[in-house]
Amino acid sequence: MIIGVDHGFGYIKTVHSSFVAGVTPFGVEPPLKHNVLKYDGQYYVLGGERQGVQRSKVDNEYYYLMTLGAIAEELKYRKVTDANVILGAGLPLTRFGIEKAAFKQYLTQNSEVTFEYEGVHYKVKISDVRLFPQGYSSIIKDMDKLLDGEDEVLLVDIGSWTIDILPIVNGIPNMAACKSEPNGIIKVLNSISEEINRELGAGVSEVKIQTIMQGKPCKLPAQYRQIIENGLFRYASKLMDRLKEEYEIATTPLIIVGGGSCIIKNFYEYNEDMTTIITDFAANAKGYEYLVSDQEKKKKDARG
Fold first, then answer.
1. What gap in Å lies between CA 210 and CA 160, rounded to an integer?
2. Which of 69, 179, 211, 300 could form a disulfide with 218 if both were Cys (CB 3.0 to 4.6 A apart)?
């Protein structure tokens, strides 16, 4: 069985589920089972409040625990409790070569693992982990359709912590021109929260801000909503201005992906003829599963 997991700093995403990238250890069994993981005799609640950004995802056990939760969510959807899994996952473009070996070792620390999730017992054999570049993986399945015959496009992946920018020339990523900036949506969430505290003397949750960011209905006093919408507009404008300064985006089609793509879609007047925005939260996870499936098919064909 192939399972793709997108290990974001904001959310953990699979093809059929997502939860906030947070782990809360519990000394005793929590009263509710939702998102509760029991592993190695300890209880953890996954999701809830987002944890702080780590220097590396392998610094502690939290991303491993969240991986188990993500696998369980997919197995729950597929109505399976015992599975042999090939895990597809990703890393930022500019950190891929540096972090690949350590992240693969981290995710394969147990070839077989048993745990409970939401009161259900799971037994999983992780037979392999395949790693791919984030952002680029989210468009690989529909690459021909998205490129639409263009010889050059600019891929912009607005993630929780970084913005990755990748020129694609004749369908091939130009890694020499790839860059990553630590200006993802966590920065704008923090900035908006600070402004609301400063101006109104009260707080607002990240969930509320992200609900507005995604264009979903949300009950919120007008003065709070105004600060949030203004902050999102400023963020989108600054991002697009930076792209205009460094790239010929007036004549180069843009493909914008990642969790922050909805900010451009909902709070910026972009050129629809030159810009494709993919707001699917599961796009990377779907891409990882597609790439692993393609690799497995090629192996099978080679064996005859």
1. 11
2. 211
Q: Is 201 strand, coil or helix?
A: coil
Answer yes or no: pTM beyond 0.90.
yes
Q: What 8-state DSSP symbol labels residue 58?
A: T
Neighbours of 63 (CB within 10 A): 24
Residues 6+ apart with CB under 8 A from 195: 227, 231
User: What is the pLDDT averaged over residues 69-97?
Assistant: 95
The answer on 152 and 43 residing in a single domain is no
Residue range of the domain that includes 165: 143-280
**What are the tokens at 221?**
């006093």
Task: Tokens 């899994």: give the residue.
Answer: 85
pLDDT of residue 181: 87
Cα end-to-end distance, the chain, whole Å: 21
Residue that is last in its domain, among 77, 101, 133? 133
Q: Domain ends where: 133, 161, 178?
A: 133
Q: Is residue 262 part of a domain?
A: yes
Classify residue 300: in a domain, yes or no. no
Q: At what angle do helices 222-246 and 206-213 cross, to 10 degrees?
A: 60
Reduced to 3 states (helix: H, G, I; strand: E, B; else coil), residue 166 is: strand
Domain co-membership, 8 together with 86: yes
CA 167 to chain centre: 20
Locus of tokens 């409790």: 81
Q: What per-residue string of b and e applies to 76-99 under the rule 16 or more CB within 10 Å gives b?
A: beeeeeebebbbbbbbbbbbbeeb
Q: Which two tokens stand for residue 58?
A: 């392998």
The yes-or-no verdict on residue 304 having pLDDT over 80 is no
Cα separation, 112 vs 257, in Å, equals 34
Q: Is the pLDDT of residue 277 over 80?
A: yes
